[in-house]
Amino acid sequence: MNEWVVPEIDLEICTRCGACVEECPARAVEMGPDGPFIARPEDCTYCAQCDAICPQGAITVAFEIVWGA
Amino acid sequence: MAIRADPRALEDLRGASLLAGLSDEALACLAQAAIRRTYAVGEVIIVEGDPCRVAYFIARGRVRVFRTSPSGREQVLSRLGPGQAFNTVPPFLPHGRNHATVQAITPVILYAVPAEDLRRLVLECPELALALLHDFAERLDHLTDLAESLSLQTVRGRLARFLLEHAEAGQVTRRWTQEEIAAHLGTVRDVVGRTLRAFAEAGLIRLDRQRIVLLDREGLEEEAGR
C-alpha cells in the first residue's frame, strides 16, 4: 500500500500564495524557504483539496485506476 | 527552392506533437512564418471571444486555457505545455474567434503563426495540411463521442463508464488527476470529486491513497448504463 505517497508540488509554477497551507484539512502542508511542502506525510489523507485550491495548478494529486483483488 | 528558416524556430517547432513526422521542408515552411514571442507569468496571451488572428505553438513553459461564465467563474479547460498548440482551429473559420482565454502560468516561449499565413501554408504545403487534418479528425472523433455521452448519460454514468474503460490490471501505465477526468468527461473537477465519493459510499469503488480501486463491476456497469 502507498502509505507515504503525497501530492506533487511544482515549485516552478508555484507563486507561494499559501492557499494550500491554509486549506489543507489535515494541516499537513507548510510553507518552507523554497515553497510549500508536505511537512507531515503521515497526516496527509490525499484528499486532493490542495490540488483543487491551487490557482496555478501547481499541485498534482493523481490516481491510478485499478481493479480490486 | 530552399527555404531558409530560423534554426531555433525549426528546433522548437519540431517538438510539437501536432507537427511530428513533418519533413524538414514542410517544417521550414511553417518556421519561416512563425514569430517567436515570450510571455511572463500571468500574462494573458489571447482572450476568449476576440477575433482569432494567430495560431500558437508552445516551445517552453506552460499555459492554462479557461473560459469565464457570465457570473465571472473561471473554468479551466486544460493546461498545455511544450510541444502542444492552441488556437489552430479558428483560423479556418470565417470570422473565427478565440475559443478560450489563454494565460501563461510560467514564463512562456511561443511561436505565433498569423491566421492568414496558416491558411496560405495549408494550400502550399500538403504535408502540413494533412497534419492539421489528422489533429482535427482526432478531436472531432473525441468530441462526437463526448456529445453523444453528454446527451445520453448523466455525469455518474459517464464517470462509471470512464472508470470501467480505464481501469488497469498489472502494470499501471497512466495516472489521472480529477481535473483531467473532468475535462475528459465534459464536467468540472468538483463534480468528479463528489461523484467519486458517492461511488465509494455506495461500495462501487474504494479511494485508496493514489488509487481508485474498482470493486463492483456489475454495479458500475449499471451506473454506466444510466
Q: Could you describe the 3D structure shown?
A:
The complex is a heterodimer of chains A (69) and B (226). With 69 residues, chain A is an alpha+beta fold. Helices cover 14% and strands 26% of the residues of chain A. Chain A has one domain: Alpha-Beta Plaits (2-Layer Sandwich). Chain A has helices spanning 19-23, 49-53, and strands spanning 8-9, 29-32, 35-38, 59-60, 62-67. In chain A, strand 2 and strand 3 form a beta hairpin. In chain A, 30% of the residues are buried. The model of chain A has no long low-confidence stretch (mean pLDDT 89). Chain B is an alpha+beta fold. Chain B contains 8 helices and 11 strands. The model of chain B has no long low-confidence stretch (mean pLDDT 89). Classes of the chains: A alpha+beta (69), B alpha+beta (226). The A-B interface holds A 1-3, 5, 12-13, 15, 45-46, 48, 51-52, 56-57, 60-68 and B 41, 62, 64, 76, 79, 105-106, 163, 166-169, 172, 174-179, 189-190, 193, 206, 208-215.
Query: Which strand order do you get reading across the main beta sheet of chain A?
Result: 1-4
The most extensive contact between chains is: A-B, 23 and 31 residues
Radius of gyration of chain A: 12 Å
For the terminal residues of chain A, how far apart are their CA atoms?
13 Å
Radius of gyration of chain B: 20 Å
Helical content of chain A, roughly? Answer: 10-25%
CATH architecture of chain A: 2-Layer Sandwich
**On the 0-100 scale, what is the average pLDDT of chain A?**
89
**Oligomeric status of the shown chains?**
heterodimer
| CATH homology superfamily of the largest domain in chain B | Jelly Rolls
Give the overall shape of chain B.
Answer: elongated
CATH topology of the largest domain in chain B: Jelly Rolls
Main structural class of chain B: alpha+beta
Element string of chain B (H = helix, E = strand):
HHEEEEEEEEHHHEHHEEH
Strand content of chain A: 25-35%
Uncertain residue segments of chain B = none
Tally of separate helices of chain A: 2
The name of the CATH topology of chain A is Alpha-Beta Plaits
The N- and C-terminal alpha carbons of chain B lie at a distance of 59 Å
